[in-house]
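A protein record pairs a chain with a discrete description of its three-dimensional fold. The shape at a given residue is found from the number at the same position. Here is what such a record looks like in full:
>
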Amino acid sequence: MKSKAVIVVRGNVGNIEYKQSATGGKGRAILSIATEEVFKKDGQTVKETVWYRAVAFTGPDGTGGLAELIGRMCRNGTGLEVVGKPKMREFVNNENQKVQFLEILIDEVDFLNNYGEPKDASAPQVAPQPVQQAAPVQQAPVAKPTYQQAAPQNQGFAKPQANANPFQR
């Protein structure tokens, strides 16, 4: 049995960065995704935000793919759910220390709120306009159809012969 590590993260986009390969190969969209957890600690409500780094790639020809879709559909605050493979990355920071971090290589993405509309309070709220109802239209009564099974009729086909083999011509 093969084993496979999968991560599912549901949260809001914090930052999107799009990078194209210098050699004309695959491009990628790099996302910061925030999840928020609310819990009680010593009687106080505590909100804890955890950030994840996720990467989506373009198609083999440098166009299309999840990176392009995410680039068109996401903005800061967009709710989404990503499913992908975990990948440990490392780099050396300015203090010459090795830093490791977890990155999610996105396989699937699901947009959670209005396909690209930001989910924040600063977005303009549009008040619903009242809808005028048209006057009811008078229709003539329609007769209810009645269905009856017709008696079988001979449609001019020859009657089958008794003891006839249907496979013989």
